[in-house]
Sodium-dependent glucose transporter 1 (Notodromas monacha), 489 residues
Amino acid sequence: MMSNAGSASRDKVAQQEEEEAEGGGGDENLMEESTMAMLPSEKPTVTFRMSEDQQMSVEDQQSTVTSSATRWERFKFGYYTAILYLSFIGLDAEVGGKVAIIFDHGHRLEIYGAVNILGGISICVAPLMFNFWGFCFVIFLSGLFTGVMDAGGNVMLLSLWEGGSAPYMQALHFFFGLGAFLTPLISEPFLSPDVNREQLLHNETVSFLLDNGTVSKVDAHVDRDEVAAMIRIPYLMVMVWMVLVGLCFWHLALVHRCSGVMSPFERRTSGSAAAAAAAAEDDGEGEGGQQKTRQAPKVARALRWFTIFAMSMFFFFYVGMEVAYGQLVFTFAVTSGASLKKPEAAFLNSAYWGTYTATRLISIFVAVCVPPMVMMWVDFGVVTLAAAILLAGAETPAGLWVGSALLGIGMASIFPTGIMWYESHVMVSSKIASVFLIGSAAGEMTVPYLSSVLMPLNPMYLVYLVCTVDACCIIVFVMVTVALTRRRN
């Protein structure tokens, strides 16, 4: 009995010692875990236990921050674009009066080549400027050279083919549209890096632990230098292309200089002086060498300048309507009574520009056999029909689709056809072309801005503006036609 009791007590003591040993080990483990928890990790980790509603709230806040950043980026883009357009207007007023004089007196190939090279260099330098005012200056230079290229290019084309310039003028403006269509597609891979909205939290690892046990972990890091290098690539591509084009013009100029053959531009320049003298003689003298009254040449010159500025106003209305509708038709389709979904509105916008570009391609062949006056009135008829359809059914999907497509068809060839029609009455010099481009650039800024101010009040203001601008274009065109007829008589 005594031996059994002693063995039982020894077993209890051994069991207690084992339990104490296990307890002590647990305390040591707890101390070890707490010590490990206090040690700093290599990368901070933030863990949140959130319900699904709380996670949705966080996502909404992140979306708000992202949308604010997007709005700011759009504001900066619009601001820089406005600077470019303002410089475009200023350069045409200044350069059109000075540099265009050099264009009218020869050396056009050399000047055009230099302008292309300098324009390409200024475009490539733009993304390297981190100072705001330095960036504005480079953008101003870019607009300067762009304005010279626009004014000089149209005049050089008219000088090269003269009376047969109609299809080539249509082809020139078709490639304007084609370039505007292809450039975003080429530059998009470089301008749209794959950055998620969670990457607003830089250099942190954030884990969201949901009630259902799902863990969402984001490791965000954005290499700013890499993004900046990618953005510079499209600018470099544009520079290389423009420099190559400029070198081609210099090569043509060198060939003409070495061969001693006068270029078509110089032939027209030398002939323009004789034409101007003949025009002055027609204005100042009658049959038998008798002097006309001084009133006749003054009236002729006044009518000439009236037609120039009236055509500038014509292009002001036309280009303004063209750009305004192209920029705002998406917003109109979503917010108006048509209530299209955003993907459908995007397709509608593509339909407008698609019919616009396709019609410019077709106009190249139509211009061979159809006079500019006939093409102008056909375009006016199509635009008026489109405006009537939009006025009656813009708040229905079918009416909006048909009206937008017809508007793109009608507006496609008005600009090049208008220049060709005016060239058939008055020789278009670089100074005259610069006045036309001033009106175009001013309309490109003014009419879309006016539309964007009025549309929040009522989306139909866009349609009303299209109808008003269409009527103004027709009225101005009739006025110019009457003035040119009177000047000729």
